[in-house]
């Protein structure tokens, strides 16, 4: 039973990651039932899929009502009660809150899959902190996407079983077509002055992603006129205001959020992608760019430090270090086209090996098998066969005993 707040038709990297992992596990023969909590759902619905089911769970103002309603569905479902082997928490506050409870009530192991934002936003949060800690301490196994998260969780909970399982990418249909390349060339001809390199920033450019920090470093580096910024996704107000105030000094093109495959021509238009995060997990943007042979200008936050080697796949700088970032920008400005091409080739090889989605799914499948014997030692019952513990019959049996 896989609990999540991030699943298609929602957009974004978390929803894509959840879909990729569930789909690949199902293709490997693992039965996965997905319970998707979302305010966008209009009604409760259960759909049968290949090797699993999809529980559509509407969430309104009263989240507790949604969690209790789902439990009604589960406890009245013989398959859910008798065949479920694990409960998995993936992405968002409600899964982290509900999964330990459902796992205990079903008498099965809990797997807590910590994405970057779950930990970074939760560990210091008055609202989320207790929920996150409960999901970590009660888990039979915890998985994180970067080694720094594994180390931090182990330091807090020395007895926890914690593994690093990096994000994956399916490169089968993640390829540039001639049409994508032509669209990229056409866009550059219209928007980019000759001689400028295009730096791409993709996704939800929230504060932790370091967008404003990078803009200020770029301006102070003295190389702003060597670049054109392509910003695709959600841009927070402070970045928009800064760009408006410096539009004569920084060349940039802002574009709204696009569906994943619509991004291909825009990736193709970039010499490098920029990931200046203060803290992070392992961004899908990094994997998508690497899969297309596009190197990164990135901080060493999270999974970037695990996989990227300076001058081989990326130009790296210490998170939040302005001087270090300016030096990285200078290196990006002065690097030859041939150096960039070699780095891009190395990125393609990295994506095909370290980020293979089948390896990712196999890691999760191995952990599922390894934790099968860690069920909570309580008895699960069929309502038709066993009297509830508080029924008159059960109380009478207790008195006799």
Characterise the protein shown here.
With 401 residues, this protein is an alpha/beta fold. It folds into two domains: 2-168 and 358-370, Glycogen Phosphorylase B (Rossmann fold); 178-353, 3-Layer(aba) Sandwich (Rossmann fold), CATH 3.40.50.2000. It contains 17 helices and 14 strands. The chain has helices spanning 13-27, 63-75, 78-83, 93-106, 116-122, 129-137, 147-156, 178-191, 211-221, 237-245, 264-268, 284-291, 303-307, 322-334, 337-353, 357-370, 392-400; strands at 2-4, 34-38, 45-49, 52-58, 87-90, 110-114, 141-144, 162-164, 197-205, 227-235, 252-255, 272-275, 296-299, 314-317. The strands form two sheets. It has an eight-stranded mixed beta sheet, sandwiched between helices. A six-stranded parallel beta sheet has the order 11-10-9-12-13-14, sandwiched between helices. Helix 13 (303-307) links the parallel strand 13 and strand 14 (314-317). Helix 1 packs across helix 16 (357-370), helix 4 packs parallel to helix 6 (129-137) and helix 9 (211-221) packs across helix 14 (322-334). Residues 376-401 have low confidence and may be disordered.
Question: What structural class results from the helix and strand content?
Answer: alpha/beta
Low-confidence stretches: 376-401
Residue share in helices? Answer: 40-55%
Strand content: 15-25%
Number of domains: 2
Q: Name the shape in a single word.
A: elongated
CATH topology of the largest domain, by name, is: Rossmann fold
The CATH class of the largest domain, by name, is: Alpha Beta
The number of E-state strands comes to 14
Distance between the termini: 36 Å
CATH superfamily of the largest domain: Glycogen Phosphorylase B
Number of helices: 17
Question: In what order do the strands lie side by side in the largest sheet?
Answer: 3-4-2-1-5-6-7-8
Task: State the major sheet.
Answer: 8 strands, mixed
What is the radius of gyration computed over CA atoms, rounded to a whole number of angstroms? 24 Å
The CATH level-2 architecture of the largest domain is identified as 3-Layer(aba) Sandwich
Q: Averaging pLDDT over every residue, what do you get?
A: 91
């Amino acid at each position: 039973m896989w609990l999540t707040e991030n699943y298609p038709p929602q957009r974004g990297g978390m929803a894509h990651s959840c879909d990729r992992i569930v789909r690949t596990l199902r293709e490997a023969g693992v039965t996965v039932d997905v319970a998707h909590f979302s305010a966008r759902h209009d009604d409760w619905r259960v759909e049968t899929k290949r090797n699993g089911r999809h529980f559509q769970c509407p969430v309104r103002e009263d989240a507790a009502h949604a969690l209790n309603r789902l439990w009604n569905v589960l406890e009245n479902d013989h398959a859910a009660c008798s065949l479920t082997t694990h409960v998995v928490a993936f992405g968002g506050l409600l899964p982290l809150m509900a999964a330990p409870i459902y796992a205990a009530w079903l008498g099965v192991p809990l797997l807590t899959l910590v994405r970057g934002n779950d930990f970074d936003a939760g560990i210091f949060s008055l609202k989320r902190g207790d929920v996150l800690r409960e999901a970590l301490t009660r888990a039979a196994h915890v998985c994180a996407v970067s080694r720094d998260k594994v180390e931090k969780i182990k330091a807090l909970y020395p007895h926890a079983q914690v593994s690093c399982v990096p994000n994956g990418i399916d490169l089968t249909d993640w390829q540039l077509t001639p049409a994508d390349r032509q669209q990229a060339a056409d866009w550059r001809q219209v928007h980019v002055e000759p001689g400028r390199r295009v730096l791409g920033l993709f996704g939800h450019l929230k504060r932790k992603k370091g967008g404003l920090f990078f803009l200020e470093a770029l301006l102070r580096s003295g190389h702003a006129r060597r670049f054109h910024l392509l910003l695709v996704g959600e841009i927070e107000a402070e970045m928009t205001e800064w760009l408006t105030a410096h539009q004569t000094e920084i060349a940039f093109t802002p574009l709204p959020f696009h569906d994943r495959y619509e991004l291909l021509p825009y990736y193709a238009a970039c010499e490098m992608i920029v990931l200046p995060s203060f803290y992070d997990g392992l961004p899908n943007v990094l994997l998508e760019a690497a899969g297309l042979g596009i190197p990164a200008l990135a901080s060493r936050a999270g999974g970037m430090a695990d996989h990227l080697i300076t001058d081989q796949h990326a130009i790296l700088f210490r998170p939040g270090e302005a001087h270090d970032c300016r030096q990285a920008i200078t290196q990006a400005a002065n690097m030859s086209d041939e150096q960039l091409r070699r780095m891009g080739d190395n990125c393609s090889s990295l994506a095909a090996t370290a980020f293979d989605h089948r390896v990712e799914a196999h890691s999760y499948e191995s952990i599922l098998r390894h934790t099968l014997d860690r069920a909570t030692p309580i008895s699960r019952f069929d309502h038709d066969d066993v009297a509830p513990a508080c029924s008159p019959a059960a109380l009478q049996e207790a008195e006799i005993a």
